[in-house]
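Both lines are retained for reference:
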Amino acid sequence: MYLTIKETAEFLSVPETYVEKMVQNNQIRAIHDGEQILINKEQFNTHLKQMEKYKELIEEVLNEPIPEDLDIKDED
């Protein structure tokens, strides 16, 4: 499935200018059909999967309880 620059920006939650620069710098594969630039949506699948893994990892770290400090001594 092909997306326009505007649709790609919405899909990735980034500004349109960012997507345009990525296309110009050949960091995103795109084709020009004579009227508009089209970007294949499938090329972002790996990136989105990686982002999901990172989000899960961050969530695990944030939800991990803080261990008690072994250096603290009971003064009672």
